[in-house]
Design goal:
about 250 residues; alpha/beta; Rossmann fold; Helicase, Ruva Protein, domain 3; two-stranded antiparallel ribbon; 10 helices; 9 strands; elongated
Amino acid sequence: MKHIARKRFGQHFLTDGAIIDAIVDAISPQPGDAMVEIGPGLAALTQPLVERLGRLTVIELDRDLALRLRAHAQLSVVESDVLKVDFTALASQLGAPKLRVVGNLPYNISTPILFHLLEHVAVVQDQHFMLQKEVIDRMVARPATSDYSRLSVMLQWRYAMDNVLFVPPQSFDPPPRVDSAIVRMLPLAEPPAIDVARFSAMVQVAFSQRRKILRNTLGRWLDEQGFSGAFDLQRRAEEVPVSEYIALAQATQA
């Protein structure tokens, strides 16, 4: 029986064989890899992945799809909202020091998923995700560009990222109204030592009014922290490189 895509789950099923092959090649799954797929849907990626891996763990919220997936002997199915999955515990359950995480993420909650995984980055080897191209443009954006944002800073402090493949709407059923792409995310081997909660709060304040100079936003926050060091506040948030945000967060921790 044909599964009808459910709008509330943001379902768009990948159907283009050439695109599927290109995505699997980009992921480059190896036998024995501890891989977790988010949102396997109708198993377009799942099948070629498990053929190369031998075993795959999938996270699926849709009860009907989870039931179908359980019929596959080589799949371990976690029926859950991905935002409630403890990936650190999952890695322990799989006996794996690191997980390879992949998936066609629901576009309506892609950013919350990325931030949720950031909390478990210590057990992640790499991530390959299908996302709205506009979101990936923000993730990999450089300073002083229109796409550079809080998302850029919050991910770039911890990952090296690349837009590796463009995916047009007609590759899906039903076609989304946006262009899509595949992003590769590699956790940095030696990330900066920062208080992540403080860093996150600081970056959120900086970008809260991105068209205003930082003196009107971040300046007040720094005053509240008792910061007396030097930092150029006569810039907009989008003009400050990630490295400067990191250094400022470290300076306010002292």
